[in-house]
User: Which sequence fits this backbone?
């Protein structure tokens, strides 16, 4: 984790269909001057996954939670509830934690406004927003949330971050080629390092 950068816990699907959204969140968090954290950053067979997630949640004052993935699994015909579970852990830390934990803030997203009331109605009092299944709207939502969490001058506009992200995607294959990394199979740590380096250099290769 970059020293001096406020960490942001990312709770979202990690499958291939969601990857463009996940990458957009990671890039936007870096571009706004924060550090993204998620369960994919730690590969450690010596600990349980839930323990890792609990530690990440404890360390992050901010969280971005996308609970839009409610489709049934093609094999088991069951939905995946990891995202609502991790949201519950984050809200529990905020409700029952110490003074530091009680200051947590989070952005909760779904693909349609008010749809969440049909499958997780207990959070009906939460301010759940929608990205409408569009990456550009997702970036705007992330920027607005993080902008509300800073006390310095306003962050770049959503439009500026979207433009930066488009340029980043255009040069990403070239960056991967130079690093001798397969652009088609980037793991999280590869992508996060490349995005952070790109942002730190303000887009200069």
Assistant:
């Amino acid at each position: 984790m970059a020293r001096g950068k406020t960490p942001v816990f990312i709770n979202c699907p990690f499958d291939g269909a969601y990857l463009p959204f996940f990458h957009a969140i990671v890039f936007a968090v870096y571009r706004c001057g924060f550090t993204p954290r998620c369960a994919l950053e730690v590969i450690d067979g010596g600990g349980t996954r839930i323990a890792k997630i609990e530690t990440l949640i404890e360390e992050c004052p901010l969280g971005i939670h996308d609970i839009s993935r409610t489709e049934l699994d093609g094999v088991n015909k069951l939905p995946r509830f990891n995202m609502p579970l991790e949201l519950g852990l984050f809200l529990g830390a905020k409700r029952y934690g110490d003074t530091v934990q009680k200051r947590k803030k989070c952005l909760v997203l779904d693909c349609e406004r008010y749809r969440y009331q049909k499958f997780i109605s207990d959070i009906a009092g939460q301010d759940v927003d929608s990205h409408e299944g569009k990456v550009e709207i997702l970036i705007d939502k992330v920027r607005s949330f993080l902008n509300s969490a800073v006390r310095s001058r306003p962050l770049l506009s959503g439009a500026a971050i979207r433009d930066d992200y488009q340029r980043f995607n255009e040069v990403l294959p070239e960056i991967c080629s130079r690093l001798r990394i397969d652009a088609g199979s980037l793991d999280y740590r590869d992508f996060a390092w490349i995005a952070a380096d790109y942002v730190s250099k303000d887009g200069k290769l």
Q: What stands out?
A: Residues 2 and 35 are 7 Å apart (CA to CA). The longest strand covers residues 105-110. The chain has a mean pLDDT of 89. The helical segments are 19-31, 49-59, 82-96, 135-147, 158-179, 188-200.
